[in-house]
Design goal:
The protein has one helix and twelve strands; from the N terminus they run H-E-E-E-E-E-E-E-E-E-E-E-E. It has one helix at about 10-45; strands at about 60, 65-70, 75-85, 85-100, 105-110, 115-120, 125-135, 135-140, 145-155, 160-175, 180-185, 200. Keywords: Periplasm, Signal, Transport.
Amino acid sequence: MNERFSRPDGGQARATLAHRVTHALRCSRAVLGAALASLVALTALPAHAEKADRDKPLNIEADNMSYDDLNQKNVFTGHVVATKGTIVIKADRVDVTQDPQGYQYATGTSTGNNLSYFRQKRDGVDEYIDGNAVRIDYDGKNDFTKLTTRATVRRLQGLSTVQDEVHGSVITYDGQKDFYTATAGKDVASPGNPTGRVRATLAPRSGGAAPLNGPPAKLSPSNTIQGTPQQ
């Protein structure tokens, strides 16, 4: 017994094939568009390690200056203020040297109860690293700062809001890697810290962190939210 099977309509088959081709093209365009958007987003990100401070001129104000030609050293004394881009160093005395490649190195020292001061802006954000110590060494080639004896380093939001604060005998700050370390020492010993251990206060990194030196946040009910929560 011969049975007849109906053949699919040719027009419907062609329509189905055309629909599948169109859908595939749309998917391909969507994937390509997403890939291009991701590439543009990655390209637009600032290079965090890029630093312009070391290429800026070093400007210094002081009460006195002397120049040692043999050792290629400039010595500034008396209320010294040195600036280099966003970098600021203040001290009783600042010694400046320069290597054959043109990179500059500065050492700020203070005596008595005075402490030397350092500040530098972080790349890409409205934040600064600043600190105090008896001695501050700045390496212009590697963008590296070392604070020695009674050292304190702070991360500031803007120029006034303290987010992090670290106390230690020696604190180093690597401006290229945005990384700092702290070491304990007897010079930071106190009745509450007899062994001179490192002390740190760190704000949470989640969005909207409260400043360390501000009042507690006040909560109040909202008059604009209406309806019941969605389950």
